[in-house]
Amino acid sequence: MVTIGNIQLPDFPLLLAPMEDVSDPPFRAVCKANGADLMYTEFISSEGLIRDAAKSVQKLDIFEYERPIGIQLFGSDVETMGECARIATRAMPDLIDINYGCPVKNVACRGAGAALLQDIPKMVRMTEAVIKATHLPVTVKTRLGWDDNTKNIGDVAERLQDIGIKALTIHGRTRVQMYKGDADWTLIGRIKENSRIQIPIFGNGDIDSPEKALEYKNRYGVDGVMIGRASIGHPWIFNEIKHFVQTGQHLPPPTVADRVAVCRQHLDFSIRWKGEILGLFEMRRHYANYFKGLHDFKPYRMRLVTTDTYSEVSAILDEIQETYIVEFA
Q: Which one of 101, 103, 135, 316 has the largest count of C-beta atoms within 10 Å of its C-beta?
């Protein structure tokens, strides 16, 4: 069993990565139903939350069936992050996570996210401010370092553990790498080998198959893995990994009927949470992923992303199932 403060997770838990414009409640719902052990909200801007910006406040929405769930925060000002943590705590998540890993320009170039890897003392002060502002366990997600010359994750792990974080997730790339090239888990493994490190260490980056999850578990000794892009359109990956780790066998791949059913569940929740117009619009980014690999799917995708009523989308999903069910039966 893996423990984060007072949160108990199964051995080798699978975490859903916080992904902007992806890991909202509808997406989290289908991932939870398919085996995700711990999930996080989309990352929330501390400045937006302080200003009571509608988009930031809406990201605080969490539901009982999602537990355990963490709210992830990012920002560049120490005091603001402390106040933001107090606001997030009132939403009653199970933990607060700090994003020190986001590499995108409009975050890192404003002194937030991965930018803090260039100022470890400030990272420490900011983390202390968040810990003091909440009674909840505080965790951190970060990267190996800013670039190849400053892979300071070893120092970061020790210093953040010493001030009280309860778990650390490490993405195996630097900020300069963004999402390019292969993730390097070597340093993640060294953190686990460090006898000073007693908190759970979760690895992140390039986990896209059950085989890779088990290989990295055995090779690097991580307490669990965080899965991001590989879960988009394929929430079954969590149960697939669990089954493979336990048995060495693969679950059957999802059928077309499975894909349609989960896509429809995702769509229904999206509409309940956001309303029909926005719910339909924001689902458009997911269709191609749910039906990846189906031959001649483009005409269906074009219809799905241009249709503006639920009944029409539902009818298209029925048509997709009828068209492909024989081929993929």
A: 101
User: Contact at 8 Å (CB) between 241 and 213?
Assistant: yes
Determine the Cα–Cα distance for residues 42 and 54; give it in Å rounded to an integer. Answer: 14
Is omega for the bond preceding 252 within 30 degrees of 0, making it cis? no
Q: Extract the tokens encoding 296.
A: 């001649």
Residue-wise pLDDT for 38-52, tens only, equals 999 998 888 888 887
Distance from C-alpha of 122 to C-alpha of 134, rounded to nearest angstrom: 19
* C-alpha angle 287-290-295 in degrees, rounded to nearest 5: 90
> Residue 262 is encoded by which pair of tokens?
């989960």
Examine the domain organization and report whether 227 and 145 are in the same domain.
Answer: yes
102 annotated active-site: yes
* Domain termination site, one of 224, 247, 270: 247
**pLDDT above 50 for 329:** no
Measured torsion, CA atoms of residues 285, 290, 295, 301, in degrees rounded to the nearest 10: -30
Q: How far is CA 323 from CA 24, 311, 327, in A?
A: 30, 18, 8
CB burial readout 188-210, b (16+ within 10 A) else e: bbebbeeeebebbbbbbbbbeeb
Q: Which residues contact 193 (CB under 8 A, 6 or more apart)?
A: 221
Residue 115 to residue 260: CA distance in whole angstroms: 40
Q: How many CA atoms lie within 13 A of 218 on its CB side?
A: 7
Q: What is the pLDDT of residue 231?
A: 97
What number of other Cβ atoms are within 10 A of residue 67's Cβ? Answer: 14
CATH of the domain at 141: 3.20.20.70
- Residue among 37, 34, 30 at smallest CA distance from 10: 37
Phi, psi of 236 (to 5 degrees): -65, -15
Last residue of a domain, one of 187, 217, 247: 247
pLDDT, one tens digit per residue, over 34-88 is: 999 999 999 888 888 888 787 788 889 999 999 999 999 999 899 999 999 999 9
**Can you give the C-alpha Rg of the chain in angstroms?**
20
Catalytic residue among 31, 102, 109, 263: 102
